[in-house]
Amino acid sequence: MTPAYATAYAALVAGTIVTIVYLIVVLRGFRKSKVEMAAFGGAQLGEVQLVSEHVFKDQEDGIVWKASAGLILSGVVLWLITVNSSFWYAVPFLGLGTSIAVISAFLLDKD
Amino acid sequence: MDKSTLVLTEGLSPAVGFAVIIGLGIVMLCLALAVRSMIRTTDDYVAAGRRIGLGFGVGSVIAVWTWSVAVLTSAAVTYSWGISGLLWFVVPNGLAIMLLAPFALHLRKKLPAGYTITQFIKERFNNPAATAAVLAVIVFTAGMSILLNALGAVIVLNTIFGIQPLAVLLVALVIVTIYSYFGGLWTSAVTGTINTLLLSVPGAIVMLFVLAKVGGSDLVFAKVHSAGPQYFDLARGVTAAQFGIVTALGLLAVAIADQALWQKVWAIKPDRLARTFLWAGAWFYPIPITIGLLGFVGIALGVTVPDQIGDPAAIGPYVISHIGLPIPIVIMFTLVILNASFSATDGAFAALTSVVAVDIVRPLWPAMSDGKLFLITRLSIVAASIIVGIIVLLGLQFVDLLLFMFAVQIAFAIPITLAIFWSRFTATAFVLACGLALVIGLPIRLTAPEPWGTLAIFGVSLLVSVSVSLMQRREFDFRSLRERGRAPTSELATRSLAAAE
């Protein structure tokens, strides 16, 4: 088996594990949301509970540097593609990272 | 391996293609039926009770922004322009989502009872012309999203399985219409989150098997290098001039004109807003970059237009189906594109329901019961699907519509942005900026080479917005929006909220 195929099969195994974990956290998140919606009981159009403006103000901190970091990192990934062919194998694993990020989002999403 | 060895993998019959799209549709329908019990009112349907958390938020924003044509385009621009094409296509794509974070915070803080960007414009300006114009753009964008995403499904199913385009369009539309009908935004959020999994994991696996099949990345890298140094030039000027600037501005404008994204601004839990858009934007990047590598494989294999493919957009499906990959890997790639198509389409349907309920039916018949409103809102999905189907059957040119859509969205992007952030921006400036940008910019766009037309639309829009507003010397108090559109909270809802929190 060539190293390229070995990497592909490694991604297959890693992808299967990520898929299983992903589906488990989505199912848990769905059950939680269902309970929350049942407790909420529904609202008419325009019915909304106001939240403090601090909730929004607090989130403004760091937006610029976080977005800039994302932007620069994507540029660096593209640059690395042009300088080293070995890095091409890492790019698809970043794709698995997208699913891992969503898994993390579910795990961090605690009230 | 070179282009002389490229043959269509055996066994990729139309029946297999139909089985894949219908199978995926059945899975999505089962999910929608599971979600159905969460929905009780129109508010639940169009705003998910404003209770979408970080997980479903990130998952569904990535899915709704990953259009099927965008996935195909990432390979196509790499094939056509090299790494510079991928840079100009991918970087503004993710940035557009991350930039929505401050928009989301401002909008939710200023108009907490909002549902749509049209509603915000209506409350902000109280100007029928401005409201009607934004409503038209939002509906047009949603319709185009449905059309273009169906087009992505057409390209992949036609190139790989040889299914007739019209059959793909109609089957895809019927499937998404049926499952979107049941759960509204919650369906879109749940199916979208599953779609993100089915976009990222199969995309990664498929790409690595492609590299292995064609002899490894070293070989592809060397062949692309020998094809021309321009393919690895990130700073290639011609790409910026002929493709990059227009695409970057267009992508940023699409996000601002896309109610599928605005709808989530008012549906996500308030304390998760910024993180949702920042994460979604940042983790969107790996998907098109991964698929973009297929463009380099196409160059290395020597695939040419029009000998092997009719359009660069087909480079991804063509490579996947002609290098002898096992059928399950080909099906995985098909699933990636179909997932992108389904998630963006159901997002657009959900967006339309919010516009129909909040901006059309409720203002026209304010006394209508919630039961009737709920029914009309759901039926609007069926109506939209039929209208899109008719447009497809009429054989209108997608490319012309797409270019027109970009031009309109670019004309509205600056005025909508200023309406959200700048208190001195006026209704007159809004209407004049959008109108003049199109009247002056569109003819330039039609006659002069790009990027001049796009820059003209953008420039006129910005100049008129700022100059007219400064001349009018008015100041809008954003605090006045806080109670707008807000209904008295019912006893049931108040009690339930207290129990939930």
CATH architecture of chain B: Up-down Bundle
Bin the strand percentage of chain A: under 5%
Q: For the CA atoms, what is the radius of gyration of chain B?
A: 23 Å
- Class from secondary-structure proportions of chain B: mainly alpha
Order of secondary-structure elements of chain A: HHHH
- For the secondary structure, the number of strands of chain B is 0
- Identify the overall geometry of chain A: flat
Overall, the morphology of chain B is globular
CATH class of chain B, please? Mainly Alpha
How would you state the average pLDDT of chain B, rounded?
89
Describe the main β-sheet of chain A briefly.
none
The radius of gyration computed from the alpha-carbon positions of chain A, rounded to a whole number of angstroms, is 20 Å
Describe the structure.
The complex is a heterodimer of chains A (111) and B (501). By secondary structure, chain A is an all-alpha fold. Chain A has one domain (3-37, 62-108). Helices cover 77% and strands 0% of the residues of chain A. In chain A, helix 1 packs parallel to helix 4. The model of chain A has no long low-confidence stretch (mean pLDDT 92). Chain B has one domain: Sodium/glucose cotransporter, CATH 1.20.1730. Chain B is an all-alpha fold. The radius of gyration of chain B is 23 Å and the shape is globular. Chain B has helices at residues 14-36, 42-47, 54-65, 68-81, 83-110, 117-125, 128-161, 165-213, 217-227, 237-256, 259-265, 273-284, 286-301, 315-322, 327-364, 370-394, 398-421, 427-447, 452-472, 491-500. In chain B, 77% of the residues lie in helices and 0% in strands. Mean pLDDT of chain B is 89; it is low at 491-501. At the A-B interface, helix 1, helix 2, helix 3 and helix 4 of A face helix 2, helix 3, helix 5, helix 8 and helix 9 of B.
Annotation keywords:
heterodimer, A: 111 residues, mainly alpha, 4 helices, B: 501 residues, Sodium/glucose cotransporter, 20 helices, 77% helix, disordered C terminus
